[in-house]
Design brief:
The chain contains 57 helices and 45 strands. It has about 1900 residues and is α+β, with helices and mostly antiparallel strands. A seven-stranded antiparallel beta sheet has the order 26-25-24-23-29-28-27, covered by helices on one side. The protein has a seven-stranded antiparallel beta sheet with strand order 42-41-40-39-45-44-43, covered by helices on one side. Helix 6 packs across helix 10, helix 10 packs across helix 16 and helix 43 packs across helix 47. The radius of gyration is 51 Å and the shape is elongated.
Length: about 1900
């Protein structure tokens, strides 16, 4: 029973020091006047009666009522019900009171009060206050209302009696009883007490709060309150503030709010809002402005319905899906119409709950929410003491771990909070009363899980819970009516209202005393005890499975773990070793870790398991792996399960010295976490206490047996049951028994504390204490770690403080580590012992023992450490040595390393599956040529494989030390040096050096690497040093007797340096010597690259061809060598000029081969022989060259054989050159200056190029520049509109189309592949010459409308952009670190690199130039310095336009001509020497090869070479294995004596010097570079798509072969013969019995393991030939025979009309122009041999029914397998027929089948028409003349004499005879035509 009201107080207004209306409250009377013993009178009530301050008002206000809540020092809440009314105060009364109070300020006060504004009468508030510990708001309202009514209406009842009765009224607190009370004024009230007082009473407050703020806002406040934020409510109504605060507390049930709680805060106490602690406070909205400065307070405005969260506050919300479910349930309760709002036929009535019921439904939603959140909490309680009071701790980490919410933001904060601490204290005890929440957690868990999907069932459950909550508040729904008198309407407005009377204290006190005396004599009320065992509910496991948070773990994986452990303990080490990597991978999953601890546990007998060294090593490795994925909190109890095991497993090091596993697993942070040790300690204490009580009685023993038979979860239950039983029995025990139990429990805790002090010293003291380093050196020095428990204690605090101040080592003694550990253990012991009630004496004893324990352990460790050092090292795998190339030497012997996986997934067995080849263990080797890693995978399952990763030293782009990431793998030691080496061959080596490799060796390795990568001089590179004894570069040699070409060329350079120094002022007319005398070799060269012949204008031309220097016959061969260069051979093939004075040469030829640069005097980066217009003199060239960057003046590169348009290349123009080229013809001439003459010569030069074009000559031949195209000529509109409209306004007319296409403004694609360009593509009067220049260079240029050339300004990227782009491309294709989403990261970084955008731009320009040339306009490409993008564009244009360059021979010629001879700076761009190191690597050539690869993909049948050939060139262009791609120009190569190297000087095998030589040799042996799909069309111009969507990433960037390293050095590839020594066929390895073969994506070389059908058949053929004892034929001969036989079959079938032939449409010309798709059909023939049919035409494929299977079909033989491929010669037969040829000396005339091949520039002859083997070739480049011949001896008879003719070549004269004169004339014309056209 409890008093309804403790105190009744009357509080009145008292004026302040100044009578301005602001006053203060004053207690007039209080009853009883003496404080109750159990409940003292709360101070400060007068402040709360008028929270906004005591003020006078000019008019009466109606009475108000609200309840304020005060909290006392014991956290008891007092409810102060304030009833306030207003009484009139006369001015005179006020003044007299003021005078009494403040006589000093009399005059002032009078003046103020007498101010004319104030009315005669003011009204002062007066409050009647009831103070109670019970919260019965309505009863208080009625009681105070009754007192007011009696006073205001003047009723006869005595006020004293009513108040006395009120103060003596007692009611039961709980139990659901109903009590009727009367205060003696004829009133009657019924009070219902709640059934269970633990549930809060909310009336309608919760529902009102949701109405005011809405669902989201209230949820936000709810989460903020739980996570301990400050919350402030604002409202103009006090009662609403109280209700809102009450509602928030009701929602938090079963947690109780334990911080500051003031629903109504008075104005005088507003500074409380700045408190640092959390609070829930309500403030009148009058003070809203004062709350604005609060930066960390969440403000809820109840009147406005808003919640304001400051920016600096982050509120953790409920975890999903709980948040969503809660919102959904709330909206179902608050807005039942929402569900049916969209229904076509909504139900007529919606059953809406009453406000009170809705309130309970909302609370039911939150009750369910807490049941979800705290599900299974009782399984994580640790009972550490039962007597005298239960001491209970909660294992937070385990709870979060089992719930899978470790990473969650919300729940961990709630569990750390004070409210949850109170929850554990209140609800932890196992024996107490149970309420609705306990039942919900225990019994409804399954139901809530089942209901989740169904809204109807959820709502049903909510309604049931709401019913229970409602019944708790209103146990008797049919209440008899209250009867309480109310004042008459408007009574407060009466004018003459007497003041509230003073009450008689004596009367009231007497009534109170009477009632007290009666109560003391009454018998005590006996309340039925309803305590019971609290049910625990289902364990957490069931909840986890539903949430799917348990990792899906196959039983197979756990089986592997079990097997491996059993193998270890059965000493089957080989099997264990195989399984170990799989076990270590499995440790990522929790079940596998738990399985490991259980399995290891089975092998421990009597707390000890002695192992041998290998077993110990395995067990420790598994333990470490298991622990490395555990967090410091150890949520899943893995470290806890391993703790007893690490002190059990051991090995004997020597007699009497044993090493335990704990000394090898100390490097984990979990051991330094105080919370972990606390949880472990409490868990162990709980088990011991359980055992203590179980060993009692027999009955208990039987219970124990039953408990052990059950699953382990039941043990938890049993300790709670034991504790409940003990709590129940406690009151019945004798004091002796009680003392005995207390003592037993305390000693249990004490002994465990000693045990844990030992355990902690085991895991915290390092094995080598002399190093003065703690394991991981962390955690121990941390500030006060957050503890798992909630009791703070002064001793623990003080120890912690002293410990924290002494962080860091004071001196370098061993004892420092010991001191650290001692302090850490002391902190732990203080904390746990204080919490578990250990006496101070015991605690002091522990403090004395701990240093001894630690010291003893250190001594043991010293011996163990000493002995462990003597153990033999673990056997490491033998180092595998890589095979070296001929001439390659080892620089550093193998350093033992681990190859760590990088961002590429395949090798590490990533998401794509596959075996984990990496990490691999082996060694890194540094040779003069390569960096090679060779080793075996660490994973023994793939241990038989060999892993090789290598790249040429010269391709290294970045070498950096990397910091060790988290341990990559158990096998890789921590703390070892790690390097990352990146190569521009798209390879990456991440290596971790083994512990045995000294750091000095690593540094030496890095130095050697740097030295090899960036040699001082190009002559120190591998290509030069290979096969030579190491010697300094460029050593002066002794003079040789017979000077070789190399020395001649070196002397040449010296002469050049001498001669060029002289300058001649006198000018002589320069006449070029006749062709015979134009020698090449012995003439001077300029030396200075920067200032190239700046005085050339004044120089005597004879210095370049000195008269004194006549070419001796012996030196003519130097010029011959120059003529042999690729450029010259190509010029002759193209018919751009020859070097002989024969009938083929005429002055009418538009171009000539110019030798002006043969001394490299004009331009060092150009070749010695150049093609210039016939009319231009050499001295003009000298002047023109100065207008261009690097003196690279325009020269002809290629001529279109059909349109005769030419392609020219040059460097960009210098500024003055631009000005000169485009100066306005109308400008006044400032006199003949040098610039003018130069620009005029430039114009002449360009005009000469234009004049050379046949269509221009036809149009009116040779008009000079200014002869006009009038604007009338220009008016027609073609595809490009008016390119040159009248006047100067057309300056960018072309730019609108051509320029915009190239600048990428209108990204028009090229015309569709293979379609002929439109006839109207350019108008007839188009420009004859287009100059493609850089936009930035040509800015502001206004072309002259009368000239015949047009400028196309385009934007191109610079070399540095290529460099940046390439870096990003490398990082995209070969990422250094693994990413979370590899494919996404790859695509993103690929896009960021912009590599494909650059490829697109180059192709776009090239295709446009091809179109211009194809329509008859010449093009000059004049970009940058003329050696980067110019070279790319010019090369691509020739490749697209001329089929010859798409052959192996032609492509070589193209690269030699455009890239090598025309001076692409390979050394500079490849950073090949120390000087170029700062410039970095810029892969311009690689970009060109990528463009070729893109074209190859789109036109696979147009190239004789394969994609592999392009990769091969890409690799060796940076490898420095060959000299081909070294140095920057022919001049530099000549200087080093490379240009004309002697043939056949040395005997025996020689390393290859030229990549072309190597390719030729290799190509004769293996068809690796040959494209079997090669079937070109005559003179096809290719127009590839260049849109980004059509471009593919080259697989050269992404593929690797780990089995053998890069496949571009054929001698090194395993299983392949060395092409240098062995001419035999490559052996593909012995055929395996199984037909299945596993090909690993990044390991095997797929083309070798699984070659294509043709390669395989060619191999088989060679093998058969060898078996039959025949000499194996060359593969090319076999291939050509096959094609020839297939061609004849195709002819026969075409005649016979057989169906099978149509499937093999490969005859000459049998393919349509548009064929592009490749369809492959495999068909079984009737005889059983399979035929491959590659249909290359969409029409053909429809006709290719597999008819060979029919009886009438032709039997398919081996040759049909290749018959789809067209022979290489077929399309090149420009003219063919039979001629008689006279044999060589003394040989007869014979008829031969001759083929004139325009493309290859050859005349071939065969024995007969059907013969495929060519018997001889006459190279047309060598032909000097064709003359009529005469019959000689043995000539055919009956043939006209005129049918004979002779062909004279540089080597011999061939005699021919045709069948008649006409045929002879045709042959002569055809050959002549070839010579002039080509």
């Amino acid at each position: 029973m409890a008093r309804l009201a403790d105190y009744f107080v009357v509080v009145a207004f008292s004026p302040g020091k100044r009578g301005n209306g602001d006053g203060q409250g004053q207690i007039l009377q209080r009853f009883p006047e003496k404080d109750w013993e159990d409940n003292p009178f709360p101070q400060g009530i007068e402040l709360f009666c008028q929270p906004s301050g005591w003020q006078l008002f000019r008019e009466r206000k109606p009475p108000t009522f609200f309840i304020a809540v005060l909290t006392d020092i014991n956290s008891e809440r007092h409810y102060c019900a304030c009833f306030t009314f207003w009484e009139a105060v006369e001015r005179s009364q006020l003044q007299s009171r003021l005078r009494k109070e403040e006589e000093e300020e009399e005059e002032d006060e009078e003046e103020e009060v007498a101010a004319p504004v104030q009315p005669a009468q003011l009204f002062a508030p007066k409050s009647l206050v009831l103070v109670s510990r019970l919260d019965h708001a309505d009863v208080f309202r009625n009681c105070l209302g009754l007192v007011y009514t009696i006073y205001v209406d003047g009723l006869s009842t005595s006020l004293e009696t009513v108040i006395g009765n009120l103060l003596t009224c007692t009611i039961p607190i709980t139990g659901g009883s109903q009590r009727t009370i009367s205060l003696g004024a004829g009133d009657r009230q019924v009070i219902q007490t709640p059934i269970n007082d633990s549930l809060p009473i909310s009336n309608c407050s919760v529902a009102l709060l949701f109405r005011q703020l809405g669902i989201t806002n209230v949820l936000c406040l709810f989460c903020a309150a739980l996570t301990e934020h400050k919350i402030l409510f604002l409202s103009s109504s006090y009662q609403r503030l109280t209700d809102a605060c009450r509602a928030l507390l009701a929602l938090m049930f079963p947690l109780k709010y334990s911080f500051t709680y003031v629903p109504i805060l008075p104005a005088q106490l507003l500074e409380v809002l700045s408190t640092p602690t959390p609070f829930i406070i309500g403030v009148s909205s009058d003070f809203q402005s004062e709350t604005q400065e609060l930066l960390d307070v969440i403000i809820a405005d109840l009147d406005g319905g808003t919640v304001t969260v400051p920016e600096c506050i982050h509120i953790s919300l409920l975890p999903e899906p709980l948040l969503h479910r809660t919102r959904e349930a709330l909206s179902m309760v608050l807005d039942p119409g929402l569900e049916i709002a969209d229904l076509a036929f909504p139900p007529s009535t919606i059953s809406a709950s009453s406000l009170k019921m809705q309130d309970k439904e909302i609370r039911a939603v939150f009750l369910r929410l807490f049941a979800h959140l705290l599900q299974g909490y009782r399984w994580c309680l640790h009972i550490i003491r039962i007597h005298p009071e239960p001491v209970i701790r909660f294992h937070k980490a385990a709870f979060l771990g089992q719930r899978g919410l470790v990473e969650d933001d919300f729940l961990p904060k709630v569990l750390e909070g004070m409210a949850f601490a109170g929850f554990v204290t209140e609800r932890g005890p196992p024996y107490r009363e149970v309420d609705v929440f306990d039942e919900l957690v225990a019994n409804e868990a399954q139901r809530m899980q089942a209901d989740e999907g169904s809204k109807v069932r959820v709502l049903q459950h909510i309604k049931e819970l709401a019913e229970q909550l409602y019944k708790n508040e209103n146990p008797y729904p049919a209440v008899t009516m209250h009867k309480v008198q109310r004042p008459t309407e408007g009574s407060h407005l009466r004018l003459h209202q007497r003041p509230f009377p003073r009450l008689d204290e004596g009367t009231i006190q007497w009534i109170v005393d009477q009632a007290t005396a009666k109560l003391q004599t009454a018998p005590p009320v006996v309340r039925a005890e309803r305590k019971c065992l609290v049910p625990s509910g289902p364990p957490l496991g069931t909840l986890m499975e539903r949430n799917g948070l348990v990792l899906a773990n196959s039983a197979r994986r756990l089986e592997v773990v079990r097997n491996c452990i059993s193998y270890v303990f059965e000493s089957k080490m080989l099997e264990a070793k195989r399984l170990l990597p799989a076990v270590l991978r499995a440790m990522k999953s929790r079940p596998a870790r738990q399985c490991l601890t259980q399995e290891l546990n089975l092998h421990v007998q009597q707390n000890r398991a002695v192992l041998d060294h290998l077993q110990f090593d395995f067990v420790v490795r598994m333990m470490n792996c298991c622990l490395q994925d555990c967090s410091t909190a150890d949520e899943h109890g893995v470290a806890a399960a391993l703790l007893p095991l690490v002190t059990a497993f051991c090995r004997k090091l020597s007699p009497g010295i044993t090493q335990f596993a704990y000394s090898c697993v100390q490097e984990h942070l979990v051991w330094t976490n105080l919370q972990f040790w606390e949880a472990m300690f409490y868990g162990d204490v709980q088990n011991h206490i359980r055992a203590l009580y179980l060993e009692g009685t027999e009955e208990n023993y039987l219970e124990q047996q039953a408990g052990e038979g059950e699953p382990p979860e039941q043990e938890e239950g049993s300790i709670l049951e034991i504790a409940a039983l003990q709590c129940r029995l406690w009151p019945t025990m004798s004091p002796e028994k009680q003392r005995e139990l207390i003592q037993k429990e305390e000693s249990t805790v004490f002994s465990q504390a000693i045990h844990y002090a030992n355990r902690m010293s085991y895991l915290l003291l390092p094995l080598d204490t002399s190093k003065n380093r703690l394991p991981r050196s962390s955690g121990l020095g941390d500030a006060e770690s957050v503890s798992n428990s909630f009791i703070t204690n002064s001793i623990a605090g003080s120890v912690a403080d002293s410990y924290d101040t002494e962080s860091g080592f004071e001196d370098a003694e061993t004892s420092d580590v010991a001191n650290y550990v001692v302090r850490f253990i002391n902190r732990f012991v203080d904390k746990v012992c204080t919490e578990s009630g250990v006496t101070n004496e015991h605690l002091k004893g522990l403090h004395v023992m701990i240093p001894d324990i630690v010291q003893m352990h250190i001594e043991t460790l010293d011996a163990v450490h000493r002995e462990s050092k003597r153990l033999p090292p673990i056997q490491k795998p033998k180092l595998l040595r890589p095979s070296l190339l001929m001439g390659e030497e080892s620089v550093m012997d193998g350093l033992r390393v681990f190859l760590i996986p990088d961002g590429r997934e395949e090798g590490a067995g990533g998401s794509g599956g596959g075996p984990p080849l990496l990490p691999a263990e082996g060694a890194i080797f540094l040779t003069t040529y390569r960096i090679v890693f060779k080793g075996t995978p660490v994973d023994p399952l793939v241990g038989e494989q060999v892993v090789v990763r290598s790249f040429p030293v010269a391709s290294l782009t970045k070498e950096e030390k990397i910091t060790a990431q988290a341990p990559v793998d158990q096998f890789i030691p921590e703390g070892c040096a790690q390097l990352q080496l990146r190569s521009c061959t798209f390879q990456l080596l991440r290596i971790a050096f083994d512990e045995e490799v000294a750091s000095e060796s690593v540094e030496v390795f890095r130095k050697h690497l740097q030295k090899l990568r960036y040699p001082q001089h190009i002559a120190d590179t591998f290509a030069f040093t290979v096969g030579q004894a190491s010697k300094p570069a460029l050593q002066p040699k002794a003079k040789e007797k017979n000077p070789s070409l190399r020395t001649i060329s070196k002397n040449l350079v010296k002469n050049a340096k001498r001669t060029i120094g002289r300058q001649y002022i006198t000018r002589k007319k320069y006449t070029p010597p006749p062709w015979e005398h134009r020698g090449g070799g012995q003439q001077p060269f300029p030396e200075d690259n920067e200032d190239e012949i700046s005085v050339s204008e004044e120089m005597d031309r004879s210095t370049l061809t000195p008269a004194t220097l006549t070419i001796r016959p012996s030196d003519k061969m130097t010029m011959g060598q120059l003529v042999e260069r690729a450029c010259c051979r190509d010029y002759q093939r193209l018919g751009l000029g020859t070097l002989s004075n024969s009938l083929t040469r005429s002055k009418n030829e538009p171009f000539r081969i110019c030798t002006v640069n043969r001394m490299y005097a004009i331009c060092r980066s150009y070749p010695g022989l150049l093609i210039v217009p016939q009319s231009i003199q050499d001295n003009t060239i000298q002047r023109i060259s100065r207008c261009y960057r690097q003196n690279r003046f325009p020269v002809v590169s290629w001529r279109n054989s059909r349109t005769k348009a030419v392609l020219l290349r040059s460097g960009g123009l210098h500024g003055k050159g631009v000005a000169g080229l485009f100066k306005s013809p109308n400008a006044p001439a400032p006199g003949p200056s040098q610039a003018d003459s130069t620009s005029l010569e430039q114009e002449k030069y360009l005009q000469a190029v234009i004049n050379s074009m046949p269509h221009y000559v036809d149009a009116g031949g040779g008009r000079n520049t200014l002869s006009g195209f009038t604007s009338a000529h220009m008016s027609s509109s073609g595809k490009w509109g008016s390119i040159r409209a009248s006047g100067r306004t057309s300056s960018y007319a072309l730019n609108m189309e051509v320029g915009s296409r190239l600048a990428g403004k209108e990204l028009l694609g090229a015309p569709p592949n293979g379609s002929p360009s439109e006839a109207s593509f350019l108008r007839q009067h188009r420009a004859s010459l287009y100059i493609i220049g850089d936009k930035s260079q040509l800015r502001g240029v206004k072309p002259d409308p009368l000239q015949h050339w047009e400028v196309v300004p385009i934007e191109v990227f610079e070399a540095r952009q290529v460099k940046t782009s390439f870096k990003k491309l490398m990082k995209a294709c070969v990422p250094g670190n693994p990413s979370a989403e590899p494919s996404l990261a790859y695509l993103r970084s690929l896009e960021e690199s912009e590599w494909l955008t650059q490829i697109h731009k180059i192709l776009q320009i090239a295709v446009l130039v091809v179109e211009l040339l194809d329509t008859g306009s010449s093009v000059l490409v004049s970009l940058e310095d003329g050696w980067d993008i110019t070279t790319q564009v010019v090369s691509l244009v020739q490749l697209l336009s001329d089929p010859y360059y798409r052959t192996l021979e032609g492509f070589r010629l193209l690269v030699e001509k455009e890239w090598l001879s025309f001076g692409h700076r390979f050394s500079h761009r490849g950073a090949q020497t120390l000087a170029g190191q700062s410039g970095g690597f810029t892969p311009v050539f690689l970009q060109f090869l990528d463009c070729v690869h893109q074209i190859h993909l789109q036109f696979p049948m147009e190239f004789e070479f394969s994609q592999y050939y392009l990769k091969f060139l890409s690799y060796h262009s940076v490898s420095n294995r060959f000299r081909t791609f070294l140095l920057d120009s022919d001049y530099e190569r000549l200087e080093l004596g490379l240009l004309y190297e002697e043939k056949g000087e040395s005997k025996g095998p020689q390393p290859f010097r030229s990549v072309w030589e190597y390719v030729d040799r290799l190509n004769k042996k293996i068809p690796a570079f040959f494209n079997y799909m090669y079937a070109p069309e005559d003179s096809e111009v290719l127009r590839p798509y260049s849109n980004l969507s059509n471009l593919k990433v080259w697989d050269y960037y992404t593929q690797e072969t780990l089995s053998e390293g890069p496949s571009y050095d054929w001698e090194l590839v395993q299983g392949r013969p060395e092409p240098v020594e062995d001419p035999g066929p490559p052996d593909a390895g012995a055929p395996t019995p199984s037909r299945r073969r596993i090909v690993w994506p990044c390991y095997d070389n797929r083309s070798r393991v699984e070659p294509d059908a043709i390669s395989r058949l060619l191999e088989e053929l060679q093998n058969l030939e060898m078996e039959l004892g025949q000499i194996p034929g060359r593969w090319k001969d076999t291939w050509d025979k096959l094609k020839a036989s297939q061609r004849t079959e195709a002819h026969e079938d075409a005649g016979g009309g057989k169906g099978a032939s149509s499937a093999l449409l490969m005859a000459s010309g049998g393919l349509s122009h548009q064929r592009r798709s490749l369809g492959a059909y495999l068909q079984e023939s009737g005889v059983g041999s399979s035929a491959i049919n590659l249909s290359l035409d969409s029409d053909a494929s429809s006709a290719s029914a597999p008819s060979s299977g029919k009886p009438g079909g032709r039997r398919s033989n081996t040759s049909t397998l290749y018959s789809q491929f067209q022979p290489a010669e077929s399309e090149n037969r420009s003219y063919e027929g039979t001629l008689y040829k006279k044999g060589a000396f003394m040989k007869p005339w014979r008829p031969r089948w001759f083929v004139l091949d325009k493309t290859k520039h050859q005349l071939r002859y065969y024995d007969s028409r059907l013969d495929t083997e060519c018997k001889g070739v006459i190279d047309l480049a060598e032909v000097e003349s064709i003359t009529p011949g005469t019959p000689t001896m043995g000539a055919p008879k009956m043939v006209d004499e005129k049918a004979f003719f002779d062909v004279k070549t540089t080597k011999r004269v061939y005699n021919f005879c045709a069948q008649d004169v006409l045929l002879a004339q045709q042959w002569i014309d055809r050959i002549q035509g070839c010579l002039s056209d080509a």
